Automatic annotation (TrEMBL):
<dbReference type="InterPro" id="IPR046373">
    <property type="entry name" value="Acyl-CoA_Oxase/DH_mid-dom_sf"/>
</dbReference>
<feature type="domain" description="Acyl-CoA dehydrogenase C-terminal">
    <location>
        <begin position="260"/>
        <end position="395"/>
    </location>
</feature>
<keyword id="KW-0560">Oxidoreductase</keyword>
<dbReference type="InterPro" id="IPR006091">
    <property type="entry name" value="Acyl-CoA_Oxase/DH_mid-dom"/>
</dbReference>
<comment type="similarity">
    <text>Belongs to the DszC flavin monooxygenase family.</text>
</comment>
<dbReference type="InterPro" id="IPR037069">
    <property type="entry name" value="AcylCoA_DH/ox_N_sf"/>
</dbReference>
<keyword id="KW-0503">Monooxygenase</keyword>
<feature type="domain" description="Acyl-CoA oxidase/dehydrogenase middle">
    <location>
        <begin position="157"/>
        <end position="233"/>
    </location>
</feature>
<dbReference type="Pfam" id="PF02771">
    <property type="entry name" value="Acyl-CoA_dh_N"/>
</dbReference>
<feature type="compositionally biased region" description="Polar residues">
    <location>
        <begin position="1"/>
        <end position="15"/>
    </location>
</feature>
<feature type="domain" description="Acyl-CoA dehydrogenase/oxidase N-terminal">
    <location>
        <begin position="36"/>
        <end position="140"/>
    </location>
</feature>
<dbReference type="Pfam" id="PF02770">
    <property type="entry name" value="Acyl-CoA_dh_M"/>
</dbReference>
<dbReference type="InterPro" id="IPR013107">
    <property type="entry name" value="Acyl-CoA_DH_C"/>
</dbReference>
<dbReference type="Pfam" id="PF08028">
    <property type="entry name" value="Acyl-CoA_dh_2"/>
</dbReference>
<protein>
    <recommendedName>
        <fullName>Dibenzothiophene monooxygenase</fullName>
        <ecNumber>1.14.14.21</ecNumber>
    </recommendedName>
</protein>
<keyword id="KW-0285">Flavoprotein</keyword>
<dbReference type="InterPro" id="IPR009100">
    <property type="entry name" value="AcylCoA_DH/oxidase_NM_dom_sf"/>
</dbReference>
């Protein structure tokens, strides 16, 4: 099926500015759309699987992998069809992240961040400029990295005539070194806009940007998440998307990335189980104390696998429900209330809790049924655990448990931030 034949209910813009208060996203994904993007993602995942271990060990920026995402059309899934994009929905995008993460969670992470970063065209940009941003993104097949990590001191912008100069250092800048453009948040120091946080987009090779190449983590090694230094980088008015605040609709970007994480961890669990299942089925004989003839027939092995299959099915159901609910909130645009935003954030936090624990448990305990030979470096079963253990430290899952508990007991919501 080609992209042109997909039947969707998207209400994307038609080359004209999006009316104030509306968003180009509307409706939800139908079965044909979901099936199409699932198939595209499955094909890409199969290609990534061929040399995933070699690429992980090489620990290089994933330029070839990103070309694969461009060529498949996945990078433009969420862009309006009127500009040549896929015209798809967030549910489709989150499922794609999950499918890729079954094989290569680094690339799943990169694509997840790209979707959220480029999604700021709809969340943050002036409606009058959105069409042009979409055109440039689709025509250039841009992959959007970012440099917005809130745990570092804010980058600073200083006035320079009608433009600004950007200075500072940001760690954990996922996709910045490998992508085409970088989404940046920075606070203005002095002048008429003192204290305002602008969100803007810089091309990869803008003068004054240095990629430090210092990402050296246990897992997610190809996520291009190193530090970036900005030294007197020129930021033009035309680079600016908008301002960052706590308005309910635009701040849905944070629950959005948390929902992507939930799908990523679920994908890792599914991938670990899939490879583990192959290894168990290939094992000969059984443990000498077992009454079974093969490991696959051993009741202890079946019990562990049964736990995993059942838990994955439950988390998958929650993820699918939450992915679809996110689209229904998104289509409301400026009509989204603080209560709406809080309700979907709690649903996503629930998924974050159970998917984190599922991913870590399956990736860890799968070795119990695959045996000592599966610990060989050449097997690569450790990749799933290294990836989920690394990325699940992005923000403490215990605080997500507190969010859910405080809401259930007292109706409380956490303050809006880049983590909640």
């Amino acid at each position: 099926m080609s992209i042109d034949t997909i039947s969707t209910s998207t209400g994307s813009v038609t080359g004209q500015p999006v009316p104030e208060g509306r968003t180009h996203w509307s409706g939800t994904a139908d079965d044909a759309e979901l099936a199409h993007w699932d198939a595209v993602a499955t094909e890409v995942a199969a290609k990534l699987a061929v040399d995933v271990l070699e690429r992980d060990r090489a620990n290089l920026d994933p330029t070839t992998e990103l070309d694969l995402l461009r060529e498949s059309g996945l990078v433009n899934l969420l862009d309006p069809a009127e500009f040549g994009g896929g015209g798809g929905h967030w549910e489709s995008a989150f499922r794609v992240v999950r499918i890729l993460s079954r094989v290569d969670a680094s690339i799943g992470q990169l694509l997840a961040y790209h979707y959220i970063n480029a999604g700021n065209i709809g969340f943050t940009a002036d409606p009058a400029t959105q069409a042009e941003w979409h055109r440039k993104t689709v025509q250039g097949r841009w992959i959007w990295g970012d440099s917005v990590n809130p745990t570092d001191p804010d980058l600073s912008l200083t006035q320079d005539g009608d433009a600004f100069r950007l200075n500072g250092l940001k760690r954990f800048s996922t996709g910045a070194s490998a992508g085409d453009v970088i989404l940046v948040n920075a606070v203005v120091r002095g002048g008429d806009h003192d204290g305002t946080i602008f969100q803007f987009v810089l091309d990869h090779d803008r003068a004054g940007i240095t990629y430090l190449g210092d990402w050296d983590a246990l897992g997610q090694r190809l996520s291009a998440s190193g530090s970036v230094r900005f030294e007197d980088v020129l930021v033009e008015q035309t680079d600016i998307l908008g301002t960052v605040g706590d308005e309910p609709f635009s701040s849905l970007v944070t629950p959005g990335i948390q929902l992507a994480f939930g799908n990523l961890y679920l994908g890792i669990a599914e991938g670990a189980l899939a490879q583990g299942t192959e290894l168990v089925r290939a094992r000969k004989n059984a443990w000498f104390l077992s009454h079974a003839e093969t490991y696959r027939d051993d009741p202890f092995v079946q019990r562990v696998v049964g736990e995993f299959v059942s838990s994955i099915a439950a988390v998958e159901a929650l993820a699918d429900r939450t992915n679809a609910r996110f689209d229904r909130i998104i289509e409301r645009g400026a009509d989204v209330t603080a209560e709406d935003r809080g309700a979907i954030a709690i649903e996503i936090a629930k998924l974050k809790v159970v998917s984190t624990e599922l991913g870590i448990e399956v990736a860890n305990r799968i070795f119990e049924v695959t045996g000592s030979s599966s610990a060989k470096a050449s097997v690569g079963l450790d990749l799933f655990w290294r990836n989920v253990r690394t990325h699940s430290l992005h923000d403490p899952v215990d605080y997500k448990k507190l969010e859910v508990g405080a809401n259930h007991l007292n109706g409380e919501l956490q303050p809006i931030s880049l983590y909640t």
